[in-house]
Protein backbone atom coordinates (compact mmCIF):
# COMPACT_ATOMS: atom_id res chain seq x y z
CA UNK A 1 0.00 0.00 0.00
CA UNK A 2 1.21 3.48 -0.78
CA UNK A 3 1.67 5.96 2.02
CA UNK A 4 -0.64 8.95 2.43
CA UNK A 5 1.96 11.02 0.64
CA UNK A 6 2.74 10.33 -3.01
CA UNK A 7 6.29 10.83 -4.18
CA UNK A 8 5.94 12.66 -7.48
CA UNK A 9 8.84 14.02 -9.53
CA UNK A 10 11.00 14.03 -6.44
CA UNK A 11 8.44 15.95 -4.39
CA UNK A 12 5.93 14.92 -1.74
CA UNK A 13 2.36 15.50 -2.85
CA UNK A 14 -0.20 15.38 -0.07
CA UNK A 15 -3.51 14.60 -1.73
CA UNK A 16 -5.77 14.27 1.30
CA UNK A 17 -5.64 17.74 2.82
CA UNK A 18 -8.73 19.84 2.29
CA UNK A 19 -7.20 22.69 4.26
CA UNK A 20 -3.69 23.54 5.24
CA UNK A 21 -2.14 26.00 7.66
CA UNK A 22 0.30 28.43 6.11
CA UNK A 23 3.33 27.19 8.00
CA UNK A 24 4.95 23.95 6.91
CA UNK A 25 8.37 24.05 8.62
CA UNK A 26 10.15 24.64 5.30
CA UNK A 27 13.72 23.58 4.80
CA UNK A 28 15.98 26.47 5.78
CA UNK A 29 19.29 25.21 4.55
CA UNK A 30 21.18 28.23 5.85
CA UNK A 31 19.91 30.48 8.66
CA UNK A 32 21.60 33.46 6.99
CA UNK A 33 20.52 32.63 3.42
CA UNK A 34 17.25 30.69 3.51
CA UNK A 35 16.79 28.60 0.38
CA UNK A 36 13.38 27.13 1.10
CA UNK A 37 12.11 23.81 -0.21
CA UNK A 38 12.29 20.04 0.01
CA UNK A 39 11.96 18.95 -3.61
CA UNK A 40 14.58 16.73 -5.21
CA UNK A 41 15.35 19.46 -7.74
CA UNK A 42 16.16 22.20 -5.23
CA UNK A 43 17.98 19.88 -2.82
CA UNK A 44 20.19 18.69 -5.68
CA UNK A 45 21.10 22.29 -6.54
CA UNK A 46 21.83 23.06 -2.88
CA UNK A 47 24.03 19.98 -2.55
CA UNK A 48 26.09 21.02 -5.58
CA UNK A 49 26.34 24.57 -4.25
CA UNK A 50 27.67 23.33 -0.92
CA UNK A 51 30.28 21.12 -2.62
CA UNK A 52 31.26 23.99 -4.89
CA UNK A 53 31.71 26.33 -1.92
CA UNK A 54 34.58 24.21 -0.62
CA UNK A 55 36.73 24.84 -3.71
CA UNK A 56 37.75 28.12 -5.31
CA UNK A 57 36.44 27.51 -8.83
CA UNK A 58 34.43 30.08 -10.77
CA UNK A 59 30.70 29.35 -10.75
CA UNK A 60 28.03 30.10 -13.34
CA UNK A 61 24.47 30.07 -12.00
CA UNK A 62 21.85 29.59 -14.70
CA UNK A 63 18.07 29.73 -14.50
CA UNK A 64 15.02 31.74 -15.36
CA UNK A 65 14.34 35.17 -13.90
CA UNK A 66 13.17 35.01 -10.30
CA UNK A 67 14.47 31.52 -9.44
CA UNK A 68 16.80 32.74 -6.68
CA UNK A 69 20.24 32.87 -8.32
CA UNK A 70 21.24 35.71 -6.00
CA UNK A 71 20.41 33.58 -2.95
CA UNK A 72 22.56 30.76 -4.28
CA UNK A 73 25.49 33.12 -4.80
CA UNK A 74 25.29 34.21 -1.16
CA UNK A 75 24.82 30.61 -0.05
CA UNK A 76 28.05 29.58 -1.80
CA UNK A 77 29.94 32.53 -0.30
CA UNK A 78 28.63 31.80 3.21
CA UNK A 79 29.82 28.20 3.00
CA UNK A 80 33.24 29.01 1.58
CA UNK A 81 36.51 29.83 3.30
CA UNK A 82 35.91 33.43 2.15
CA UNK A 83 32.74 33.80 4.24
CA UNK A 84 34.30 36.39 6.56
CA UNK A 85 35.54 38.46 3.63
CA UNK A 86 33.56 40.89 1.41
CA UNK A 87 30.68 39.75 -0.76
CA UNK A 88 30.23 42.32 -3.53
CA UNK A 89 27.53 42.33 -6.20
CA UNK A 90 27.10 44.17 -9.47
CA UNK A 91 24.18 43.95 -11.88
CA UNK A 92 25.79 44.00 -15.31
CA UNK A 93 22.47 44.78 -17.00
CA UNK A 94 21.91 47.91 -14.88
CA UNK A 95 25.24 49.58 -15.66
CA UNK A 96 25.60 51.48 -18.99
CA UNK A 97 28.22 49.84 -21.19
CA UNK A 98 30.39 52.97 -21.13
CA UNK A 99 30.57 52.79 -17.31
CA UNK A 100 30.92 49.04 -16.69
CA UNK A 101 34.74 49.09 -16.86
CA UNK A 102 35.08 51.94 -14.35
CA UNK A 103 32.52 50.23 -12.05
CA UNK A 104 34.41 46.95 -12.12
CA UNK A 105 37.99 48.20 -12.04
CA UNK A 106 37.77 51.75 -10.70
CA UNK A 107 39.26 54.95 -12.04
CA UNK A 108 41.79 57.65 -11.21
CA UNK A 109 41.22 61.38 -10.83
CA UNK A 110 40.31 62.99 -14.14
CA UNK A 111 39.92 59.68 -15.97
CA UNK A 112 36.77 60.97 -17.68
CA UNK A 113 34.32 63.86 -17.55
CA UNK A 114 32.43 63.78 -14.27
CA UNK A 115 34.93 61.53 -12.53
CA UNK A 116 35.42 62.04 -8.81
CA UNK A 117 38.38 64.25 -7.95
CA UNK A 118 39.61 61.56 -5.59
CA UNK A 119 39.16 58.70 -8.01
CA UNK A 120 37.29 55.58 -7.03
CA UNK A 121 38.03 51.93 -6.39
CA UNK A 122 36.08 49.37 -8.40
CA UNK A 123 34.15 46.26 -7.45
CA UNK A 124 37.18 44.01 -7.85
CA UNK A 125 39.16 45.97 -5.29
CA UNK A 126 36.17 46.06 -2.95
CA UNK A 127 35.83 42.27 -3.23
CA UNK A 128 39.55 41.53 -2.63
CA UNK A 129 39.93 38.26 -0.66
CA UNK A 130 36.19 37.70 -0.98
CA UNK A 131 33.56 36.99 -3.63
CA UNK A 132 32.36 39.08 -6.57
CA UNK A 133 28.89 38.27 -7.86
CA UNK A 134 28.37 39.29 -11.49
CA UNK A 135 24.59 39.22 -11.95
CA UNK A 136 23.11 39.25 -15.48
CA UNK A 137 26.56 38.59 -16.94
CA UNK A 138 24.98 37.81 -20.30
CA UNK A 139 24.12 41.51 -20.73
CA UNK A 140 27.71 42.75 -20.40
CA UNK A 141 29.09 44.52 -23.48
CA UNK A 142 31.73 42.77 -25.59
CA UNK A 143 34.24 45.44 -24.57
CA UNK A 144 33.55 44.77 -20.91
CA UNK A 145 33.80 41.03 -21.52
CA UNK A 146 37.27 41.41 -23.02
CA UNK A 147 38.55 43.44 -20.08
CA UNK A 148 37.01 40.99 -17.61
CA UNK A 149 38.66 38.08 -19.40
CA UNK A 150 42.08 39.71 -19.07
CA UNK A 151 41.57 40.23 -15.34
CA UNK A 152 40.54 36.61 -14.85
CA UNK A 153 43.65 35.47 -16.73
CA UNK A 154 46.15 37.86 -15.09
CA UNK A 155 44.46 38.20 -11.67
CA UNK A 156 45.28 41.89 -11.61
CA UNK A 157 43.36 45.06 -12.42
CA UNK A 158 44.28 48.48 -13.74
CA UNK A 159 42.13 51.46 -12.84
CA UNK A 160 40.84 53.55 -15.70
CA UNK A 161 43.31 56.39 -16.28
CA UNK A 162 46.18 54.60 -14.51
CA UNK A 163 49.22 52.64 -15.66
CA UNK A 164 49.65 50.80 -12.37
CA UNK A 165 48.35 47.25 -11.93
CA UNK A 166 47.10 45.76 -8.68
CA UNK A 167 46.91 42.09 -7.78
CA UNK A 168 43.42 40.93 -6.78
CA UNK A 169 42.29 37.73 -5.14
CA UNK A 170 38.62 37.34 -5.97
CA UNK A 171 36.30 34.35 -6.36
CA UNK A 172 33.88 34.95 -9.27
CA UNK A 173 30.25 33.82 -9.23
CA UNK A 174 28.20 34.81 -12.29
CA UNK A 175 24.52 34.47 -13.05
CA UNK A 176 22.39 34.66 -16.17
CA UNK A 177 18.96 33.77 -17.50
CA UNK A 178 20.41 33.40 -21.00
CA UNK A 179 21.93 30.39 -22.74
CA UNK A 180 25.51 31.69 -22.84
CA UNK A 181 26.74 28.78 -24.94
CA UNK A 182 24.22 29.69 -27.61
CA UNK A 183 24.99 33.39 -27.19
CA UNK A 184 28.68 32.65 -27.73
CA UNK A 185 27.87 30.74 -30.92
CA UNK A 186 25.87 33.76 -32.13
CA UNK A 187 28.78 36.09 -31.36
CA UNK A 188 26.99 37.92 -28.55
CA UNK A 189 29.20 36.52 -25.80
CA UNK A 190 32.91 35.70 -25.88
CA UNK A 191 33.42 31.94 -25.96
CA UNK A 192 36.73 32.15 -24.10
CA UNK A 193 35.08 34.12 -21.28
CA UNK A 194 32.19 31.67 -21.19
CA UNK A 195 34.55 28.78 -20.47
CA UNK A 196 36.40 30.86 -17.87
CA UNK A 197 33.20 31.61 -15.97
CA UNK A 198 31.62 28.19 -16.43
CA UNK A 199 34.12 26.09 -14.46
CA UNK A 200 31.18 24.89 -12.37
CA UNK A 201 27.60 25.23 -13.58
CA UNK A 202 24.63 25.14 -11.22
CA UNK A 203 21.21 25.16 -12.85
CA UNK A 204 18.52 26.61 -10.57
CA UNK A 205 15.16 24.85 -11.18
CA UNK A 206 12.12 26.79 -12.27
CA UNK A 207 9.36 26.98 -9.66
CA UNK A 208 6.89 25.04 -11.82
CA UNK A 209 9.23 22.02 -11.62
CA UNK A 210 9.43 22.10 -7.83
CA UNK A 211 6.03 20.60 -7.00
CA UNK A 212 4.98 20.93 -3.38
CA UNK A 213 7.71 23.51 -2.81
CA UNK A 214 5.20 25.93 -4.33
CA UNK A 215 2.94 25.44 -1.31
CA UNK A 216 5.86 25.64 1.14
CA UNK A 217 7.07 28.90 -0.40
CA UNK A 218 3.55 30.31 -0.55
CA UNK A 219 3.12 29.52 3.16
CA UNK A 220 6.44 31.20 3.89
CA UNK A 221 5.45 34.40 2.09
CA UNK A 222 1.98 34.40 3.67
CA UNK A 223 3.39 34.24 7.19
CA UNK A 224 6.06 36.82 6.36
CA UNK A 225 3.71 39.33 4.68
CA UNK A 226 0.52 38.80 6.72
CA UNK A 227 2.47 38.29 9.94
CA UNK A 228 0.38 35.25 10.86
CA UNK A 229 -0.66 31.79 9.76
CA UNK A 230 -3.65 31.45 7.44
CA UNK A 231 -5.65 28.45 6.30
CA UNK A 232 -5.52 27.58 2.59
CA UNK A 233 -8.45 25.87 0.90
CA UNK A 234 -7.87 22.89 -1.35
CA UNK A 235 -9.14 24.86 -4.36
CA UNK A 236 -6.55 27.52 -3.59
CA UNK A 237 -3.87 24.82 -3.45
CA UNK A 238 -4.98 23.64 -6.88
CA UNK A 239 -4.62 27.15 -8.28
CA UNK A 240 -1.11 27.40 -6.86
CA UNK A 241 -0.04 24.03 -8.24
CA UNK A 242 -1.66 24.55 -11.64
CA UNK A 243 -0.06 27.91 -12.45
CA UNK A 244 3.17 28.04 -14.49
CA UNK A 245 4.94 30.98 -12.77
CA UNK A 246 6.86 32.66 -15.60
CA UNK A 247 8.25 35.02 -12.92
CA UNK A 248 9.06 32.10 -10.59
CA UNK A 249 9.56 32.77 -6.86
CA UNK A 250 9.49 36.53 -7.29
CA UNK A 251 6.08 36.26 -8.94
CA UNK A 252 4.78 33.98 -6.17
CA UNK A 253 5.82 36.57 -3.59
CA UNK A 254 4.02 39.28 -5.58
CA UNK A 255 0.85 37.17 -5.66
CA UNK A 256 0.84 37.00 -1.85
CA UNK A 257 1.37 40.77 -1.62
CA UNK A 258 -1.64 41.38 -3.87
CA UNK A 259 -3.79 39.04 -1.79
CA UNK A 260 -2.68 40.92 1.34
CA UNK A 261 -3.55 44.34 -0.10
CA UNK A 262 -7.04 43.26 -1.14
CA UNK A 263 -7.90 40.76 1.62
CA UNK A 264 -5.82 41.63 4.68
CA UNK A 265 -8.36 40.33 7.24
CA UNK A 266 -9.13 36.92 5.69
CA UNK A 267 -8.87 33.79 7.84
CA UNK A 268 -8.70 31.36 4.89
CA UNK A 269 -7.21 31.90 1.45
CA UNK A 270 -9.66 30.71 -1.21
CA UNK A 271 -9.58 30.51 -4.98
CA UNK A 272 -11.37 33.83 -5.55
CA UNK A 273 -8.76 35.69 -3.48
CA UNK A 274 -6.14 35.19 -6.20
CA UNK A 275 -5.61 37.87 -8.88
CA UNK A 276 -8.02 37.40 -11.77
CA UNK A 277 -5.30 36.78 -14.34
CA UNK A 278 -3.79 33.99 -12.22
CA UNK A 279 -7.12 32.16 -12.02
CA UNK A 280 -7.74 32.65 -15.75
CA UNK A 281 -4.25 31.40 -16.60
CA UNK A 282 -4.93 28.12 -14.79
CA UNK A 283 -8.07 27.62 -16.88
CA UNK A 284 -6.56 28.41 -20.28
CA UNK A 285 -5.29 25.71 -22.59
CA UNK A 286 -1.55 26.14 -22.19
CA UNK A 287 1.40 23.84 -21.47
CA UNK A 288 0.46 22.06 -18.23
CA UNK A 289 2.40 22.41 -15.01
CA UNK A 290 4.86 19.46 -15.22
CA UNK A 291 4.36 18.68 -11.54
CA UNK A 292 0.63 18.17 -12.04
CA UNK A 293 1.30 16.04 -15.11
CA UNK A 294 3.32 13.70 -12.91
CA UNK A 295 0.57 13.68 -10.26
CA UNK A 296 -2.07 12.82 -12.87
CA UNK A 297 0.10 10.01 -14.24
CA UNK A 298 0.44 8.49 -10.76
CA UNK A 299 -3.33 8.51 -10.26
CA UNK A 300 -3.84 6.92 -13.70
CA UNK A 301 -1.25 4.23 -12.89
CA UNK A 302 -3.12 3.31 -9.71
CA UNK A 303 -6.48 3.27 -11.52
CA UNK A 304 -4.94 1.00 -14.14
CA UNK A 305 -3.65 -1.41 -11.47
CA UNK A 306 -7.07 -1.43 -9.77
CA UNK A 307 -9.00 -1.71 -13.05
CA UNK A 308 -10.85 1.54 -12.33
CA UNK A 309 -12.07 0.43 -8.90
CA UNK A 310 -12.42 3.68 -6.94
CA UNK A 311 -12.46 2.09 -3.47
CA UNK A 312 -9.26 0.12 -4.06
CA UNK A 313 -7.55 3.03 -5.80
CA UNK A 314 -8.37 5.50 -3.02
CA UNK A 315 -6.99 3.06 -0.43
CA UNK A 316 -3.75 2.64 -2.37
CA UNK A 317 -3.41 6.40 -2.72
CA UNK A 318 -4.23 6.96 0.94
CA UNK A 319 -7.07 9.39 0.19
CA UNK A 320 -10.83 9.15 0.49
CA UNK A 321 -13.17 8.38 -2.41
CA UNK A 322 -14.50 11.95 -2.57
CA UNK A 323 -10.99 13.42 -2.95
CA UNK A 324 -10.12 10.88 -5.63
CA UNK A 325 -13.30 11.66 -7.56
CA UNK A 326 -12.44 15.36 -7.37
CA UNK A 327 -8.93 14.69 -8.72
CA UNK A 328 -10.33 12.51 -11.51
CA UNK A 329 -12.70 15.31 -12.51
CA UNK A 330 -10.00 17.99 -12.27
CA UNK A 331 -7.63 15.98 -14.48
CA UNK A 332 -10.42 14.91 -16.87
CA UNK A 333 -9.55 11.23 -16.39
CA UNK A 334 -11.87 8.66 -17.91
CA UNK A 335 -12.54 5.86 -15.41
CA UNK A 336 -14.30 3.72 -18.00
CA UNK A 337 -11.16 3.13 -20.05
CA UNK A 338 -9.57 1.43 -17.03
CA UNK A 339 -12.67 -0.64 -16.25
CA UNK A 340 -12.84 -1.93 -19.82
CA UNK A 341 -9.39 -3.46 -19.37
CA UNK A 342 -10.55 -5.53 -16.41
UniProtKB/TrEMBL annotation:
<dbReference type="InterPro" id="IPR025944">
    <property type="entry name" value="Sigma_54_int_dom_CS"/>
</dbReference>
<dbReference type="InterPro" id="IPR027417">
    <property type="entry name" value="P-loop_NTPase"/>
</dbReference>
<dbReference type="InterPro" id="IPR025662">
    <property type="entry name" value="Sigma_54_int_dom_ATP-bd_1"/>
</dbReference>
<dbReference type="InterPro" id="IPR002078">
    <property type="entry name" value="Sigma_54_int"/>
</dbReference>
<feature type="domain" description="Sigma-54 factor interaction">
    <location>
        <begin position="35"/>
        <end position="261"/>
    </location>
</feature>
<dbReference type="InterPro" id="IPR003593">
    <property type="entry name" value="AAA+_ATPase"/>
</dbReference>
<dbReference type="Pfam" id="PF25601">
    <property type="entry name" value="AAA_lid_14"/>
</dbReference>
<keyword id="KW-0067">ATP-binding</keyword>
<dbReference type="GO" id="GO:0005524">
    <property type="term" value="F:ATP binding"/>
</dbReference>
<dbReference type="InterPro" id="IPR058031">
    <property type="entry name" value="AAA_lid_NorR"/>
</dbReference>
<dbReference type="InterPro" id="IPR002197">
    <property type="entry name" value="HTH_Fis"/>
</dbReference>
<protein>
    <submittedName>
        <fullName>Regulatory protein, Fis family</fullName>
    </submittedName>
</protein>
<keyword id="KW-0547">Nucleotide-binding</keyword>
<dbReference type="GO" id="GO:0006355">
    <property type="term" value="P:regulation of DNA-templated transcription"/>
</dbReference>
<dbReference type="Pfam" id="PF00158">
    <property type="entry name" value="Sigma54_activat"/>
</dbReference>
<keyword id="KW-0804">Transcription</keyword>
<keyword id="KW-0805">Transcription regulation</keyword>
<dbReference type="GO" id="GO:0043565">
    <property type="term" value="F:sequence-specific DNA binding"/>
</dbReference>
<dbReference type="Pfam" id="PF02954">
    <property type="entry name" value="HTH_8"/>
</dbReference>
<dbReference type="InterPro" id="IPR009057">
    <property type="entry name" value="Homeodomain-like_sf"/>
</dbReference>
